[in-house]
Amino acid sequence: MSSLSKQIEEYIKALLAQETAGVVEIQRNFLSEYFNCVPSQINYVLSTRFTPVQGYMVETRRGGGGFVRIVSLQLDEDDDLQDALTDAIGSQLTQNDCEGLTAYLYQQGIITQREMLLFNSMLKDRVLTGLEKSQRDNIRASMMQHMLAMLNMMRHT
Amino acid sequence: MSSLSKQIEEYIKALLAQETAGVVEIQRNFLSEYFNCVPSQINYVLSTRFTPVQGYMVETRRGGGGFVRIVSLQLDEDDDLQDALTDAIGSQLTQNDCEGLTAYLYQQGIITQREMLLFNSMLKDRVLTGLEKSQRDNIRASMMQHMLAMLNMMRHT
DNA sequence: ATGTTTTAAACCAAATCTGACCTTTGCATA
DNA sequence: TATGCAAAGGTCAGATTTGGTTTAAAACAT
């Protein structure tokens, strides 16, 4: 029994997959009517699943002709991963964001699917036992930052 | 005369046996109602009988559409991965021992060199910031156990 | 008798969903 | 031109729906 948020997420990602440019423009009210939910539900989905650390940017415009624009961010071959991602990661990384980040890295061809699954298996809340939430989010951020530094090094040598 | 925990264990294992994929998704509340017990009883069973060392992985999600997912790893006796999972890792793993373990896994062809380097970069003491030594060694052990469980699962699928 | 496993209960945390109220923008028209 | 209305979208707090953790007592085994 997939949740409404999950369905909306899938729907938007399907739209993005159709667009070669990696940009989708849509109306919030269209989505909320399509899924028969309150408009703020859409904001919830955008803010939990389409953040920079997960490889997305969201721009909006109010008023007549308003829209929600979702952009899938692309990483270049020669981009410095740390420059591109350290800010987005910050000093705290929740399990949810972390899984979004690994999915992004996989989708961008930076890590393999296997690596994504292995990282995810190590970084779950359930695995980081006996720690406060803020400690967990802290070391997740730290681990991903250092992992990216190592990836970067391997790319440039 | 068989204990409640035992019954719940058998029930879950029967569900798993029905699934060719070796994956079962179910709600904790469904189980606790079915067995007419408190919900935490389910957690007790999961944490005592469905651990990575015992050949299972458990994933959960809270909130609407939440679930408990139990994955059977189908371990074969007598292989290196299995040995590493059950013997080499205790409940504590120092940075040094951890690097020894990743080197061993690499030698045995279980992980790639790149994976070894990435894991090592994430699991250093200085990366696991703000924790007591025993906490660090603890979650390192937990992370490696879960990582190996995932490796094992991927091997069989 | 003692130690271990099991069970229950009270309390905690995370993810989702809703609704009331607010802000911005474009356009029509006084 | 000023201004008011309609048409977007935004924010936030609280309710709802799951699952998690801790602790103490009960049951069981040695």
Report on this model:
Two copies of one chain form a homodimer. Chain A has a three-stranded antiparallel sheet with strand order 1-3-2. The model of chain A has no long low-confidence stretch (mean pLDDT 95). Chain A folds into two domains: 4-72, Phenylalanyl-tRNA Synthetase, Chain B, domain 1, CATH 3.30.56; 81-155. The radius of gyration of chain A is 17 Å and the shape is globular. Chain A has helices at residues 4-18, 28-34, 39-49, 81-89, 95-107, 113-123, 133-155, and strands at 23-26, 56-61, 67-72. Chain A starts with a helix and ends with a helix. In chain A, a hairpin with a 5-residue loop joins strand 2 and strand 3. Chain A is built from seven helices and three strands. The first copy, chain A, is mainly α. Chain A binds chain B through residues 1-6, 114-115, 117-118, 120-124, 126-131, 135, 138-139, 142-144, 146-147, 149-151, 154, and chain B through 57-60, 63-65, 114-115, 117-118, 121-124, 127-131, 135, 138-139, 142-144, 146-147, 149-151, 154. Chain A binds a DNA duplex (30 and 30 nucleotides) through helix 3.
